Amino acid sequence: MIIIGINAYHADASAAIFINGSLVAAIEEERFTRIKHWAGFPKLSLEFCLQEAGIGYGDVDFFAIGRDPKAKLLKKIVLLAKNPAGSIAVIRERLLNSRKVSSIEKELSGISGLPESAFEGKIKQVEHHRSHIASAFFASPFEKAACLSIDGSGDFSTTMLGLGNNNQVEILDSVDFPHSIGIFYTAFTQLLGFPNYGDEYKVMGMAPYGKPVYTEQLSKVIRLTANGLFKLELAYFRPATEGIISYGNDHVPVVAPMYSERMVKEFGAPRGKEEPLSQYHKDLAASVQNITEKIIFHILKNLHKRTGSANLCLAGGIAQNSVANGKITSNTEFKNVYIPSAGHDAGISMGAALYVQHQLLKKERQPAIMSACTGTHFNNESIKKMLTEKGIVFSEYEDDILFDKVTDCIVNGGVVGWFTGRAEFGPRALGGRSILADPRRTDAKEILNIKIKHRESFRPFAPSILKEYVKDFFELDEEVPFMEKVLPVKKEKQKLIPAVTHIDGTGRLQTVCKNISPRYYALIETFRKKTGIPILLNTSFNENEPIVNMPVEAISCYLRTNMDMLVMENILVSRVATG
Question: What is the model's pTM?
Answer without folding.
Answer: 0.95
